[in-house]
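ok so for the tutorial part 2 we go from a plain amino acid sequence to predicted structure tokens. step 1 is just haveing the sequence, like this:
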Amino acid sequence: MTKITAAITAVGAYVPEYVLTNKILETMVDTNDEWITTRTGIKERRILKKEGEGTSYLAIKAAEDLLAKKNLDPKEIDLVIVATATPDMPVASTAVYTASKIGATNAFAFDLQAACSSFLYGMSTAASYIQSGRYKKVLLIGADKMSSIIDYKDRATCIIFGDGAGAVLFEPNEEGLGLQDEYLRSDGVGREFLKIDAGGSILPASTTTLENNQHTVFQDGKTVFKFAVSNMADVSAKIMEDNNLTNEDVQWLVPHQANKRIIDATARRMGVDESKVMVNIQRYGNTTSGTLPLCLHDYEKQLKKGDNLVFAAFGGGFTWGAIYLKWAYNSN
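step 2 — the prediction. this is what the tokens look like for a chain of 332 residues:
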């Protein structure tokens, strides 16, 4: 029997219209463009300003973009996964609502949460469903409305995050293309360094938690940066070593867009030239679950069938990992 692999066959994306520039942030907190650019590589980020709309709005728009480009009937989709750290609401799944709104009436759906590694973990999950032979079309969406959990008086976090979404379609492949290998990790030691204190089962929402501003992101930047630099680089080097890939064999590094210095450190460890590194952090900031598919969307026209891609991410929790994937189609 021919081995079935899981390949990405289509990409879609959406970012909101409103652009929050470094210059605008200078009027909101004690910071400046040079400081932000030097330390993060970020120049601007997109913010969803539509009243009453959450992460599902971003996810739906990205999915609709993919469906239109692929000319795909949503009724053919078997499963919808929304990777997100900012679901619309507790309990009711954002993915379920998204699937219904895009017309994927024959699909089941669920959310997946692993902070900034959510989309990476989602790739593993989607590919496993395809490789099992049980499903033929899995829509994986990475979407986050980070502006909904950011304190815009906290200069340590408000300069970093933005809103956005990207989507990919996984389908069976018999040419040996698609997901080849993965190395996924997690460590609960990171729980205290990047979190939201209140609103969960440990500390439910109350007037006290609201008064103490405990519903926005707290980040110990130095600790997170240290863990991210070493771990993202380590897993990227390991996935190359495990698959006997040299830096010449890797056409593209697709890194999580958290900080340009972390991206550069990962590329150096892999020995990959900067011309092979997907970077759009300067335009979107860190969109959490949206970064990897937004990179694919922005670089899609440069991708060629058979290209070796290494995806790498690091997120709160801590969660991190790398995935090796062979691109399945010529985009031009």
